[in-house]
Amino acid sequence: MASTKNKAAPATSAKPHKVTTRKNLTLNDWLAVFAYIDTHPHQSQAEIVLHFEKEPTGALAFSQSALSRALKRQPELEARVNSNQNALSSKRPHVVTRPDVERALLTWVKHMEIKGDTVNGLIMIMSLQVGTMRL
Length: 135
Description:
The chain is mostly helical. It has six helices and no strands.
């Protein structure tokens, strides 16, 4: 395998650009940001972004424009907290097109957990084939 470095080039102490991938914040993260904004109403959006970048308990990386978009959607995001049990950990809203199927699946999963059984996609498929799960 050929090396990508040019052997004739002189040594340098320059550091390569840090490649970062965009990480979306969870609903819980945004609620923490909103709570901070409520307690610090006179800080600018840029100052809030810097505060969370340097947070000692764990940095949240987001841009000022992402904060602005989240603030516009704040009522929607806060309303989503009670929409389902995993809302705080999710990054996107949970869209249910068949509430009856959603309720049946939730009931079945709770039943399986009470029995101490593991629930995963394969178990769901097998239960449907055997007929032990009725939707």
